[in-house]
Amino acid sequence: HEAKRNGLRFAAYQPEMSQRIQRRASLEVRLERAIRERRIELHFQPQVDLQSRRLIGAEVLARWQDPDLGRIDPGEFIGLAEESGLIHALGKLVIEESCQQWHQWRSSGGTDLRLAINMSCKQLEDDGFIAFLAGVAERCQIPPRDIDLELTESSVMRNPAQVVQQLALLREHGFGVSIDDFGTGYSSLSHLRQLPITQIKLDRSFVSGLLQSRRDLSVVNATLTIANDLEVSLIAEGVETAFQAERLQALGYTLAQGYFFDRPLPASVFAESWLSLAEPSSGSGSPP
Ligand code: C2E
Ligand code: MG
Ligand code: MG
Ligand code: MG
Fold first, then answer.
1. Per-residue confidence of the chain (288 residues) as pLDDT tens digits?
2. Closest by alpha carbon to 118, among 161, 186, 63?
3. Distance from the CA of 188 to the center of ligand 4, in angstroms?
4. Atom of ligand 1 nearest to the CA of 81
5. Residue 62 Cβ < 6 Å to ligand 1
6. Which of 97, 141, 172, 282 has the greatest number of C-beta atoms within 10 Å?
7. What sequence ranges are listed for the domain EAL (predicted)?
8. How far is the CA of 62 from the centre of ligand 1 (A)?
């Protein structure tokens, strides 16, 4: 009787569950195909110096539009990619395409630009990953110091021992390592001290709370102290207003990123607005 009651209880949930499972299965098949056909697009969001407002780098953000289902949120497809193992192929695509784009911008006279590439900890479990990354960087003639790899604080804290070793290897190759969404992952200072990182990226939730919340202000200040203490660079993400930009600067922040400066942009738009590189078009003079 007990089993039957349980059975009925589960049966009642089934339609909703199976819908979720079906969407997931369908998305996985579609994502696999999209990666294989290289239909993942990259957007670039400027990172700026707060004082001069000048461009210092761009964060690369993956975009996926399915022909039938429309735009899928990165929060959904990155999670799916991590669970299904597709993250390895997706991560390689993002690295190849963004480094090729960097090379093309550089060849057409683009100024110094660093790339911030998001990475899942899962990718570090692949033994060939760092060699792959180094190979792509070399082919595209991008100095490793111009690439920052962003890992979320929570993912780094979940498997520190294994990750630390791989991060150290990334550093030996000269790549930058940035801790993304900082402040949300409960790292202790002693933990952080063991991580071979070059940058901390303050999570946007603390930037948006700057105006109202004293606790957010204290995280913003504490993060600055930690970055100084560890002698790593610091950037704030999710800056949406002039007030937030001014406030962060007054508190001692030097770098920022967010809608206030610009949204993540398709490569052509990014080049036009931030690199003063118009897309090649007929009729205009040829580049020098
Ligand atoms: P993230 O790395 O923390 O990226 C910042 C997210 O905040 C992006 O969301 C960006 O569009 C958004 N954002 C930027 N400025 C502002 C702002 O001023 N206000 C607000 N409200 N949001 C802002 P997006 O593109 O949806 O990406 C979500 C997450 O997906 C990323 O968070 C990153 O963790 C992950 N992701 C995106 N592309 C990749 C990728 O190629 N590989 C991996 N492993 N993860 C990726
Ligand atoms: Mg990021
Ligand atoms: Mg972030
Ligand atoms: Mg995030």
1. 444 455 555 555 667 778 888 999 999 999 999 999 999 999 999 999 999 999 999 999 999 999 999 999 999 999 999 999 999 999 999 999 999 999 999 999 877 899 999 999 999 999 999 999 999 999 999 999 999 999 999 888 887 788 899 999 999 999 999 999 999 887 778 888 889 999 999 999 999 988 788 999 999 999 999 999 999 999 999 999 999 999 999 999 999 999 999 999 999 999 999 998 755 544 343 444
2. 63
3. 20
4. 44
5. yes
6. 97
7. 24-278
8. 8
C-alpha to C-alpha distance for 120 and 131, rounded to whole angstroms: 16
ipTM of the assembly?
0.97
Q: Which amino acid is at 91?
A: G
What gap in Å lies between CA 107 and CA 247, rounded to an integer?
37
- In eight-state DSSP terms, residue 280 is P
Q: Which two tokens stand for residue 145?
A: 């110091």
Verdict on whether the full-model pTM lies above 0.90: yes
30 alpha carbon – ligand 1 mean position (Å): 21
**235 in ligand 1 pocket by Cβ < 6 Å?**
no
Q: Is the CB of 72 under 6 A from ligand 1?
A: no
Task: Give me 38's structure tokens.
Answer: 């290289």
Single-letter amino acid code for the residue at 5: R
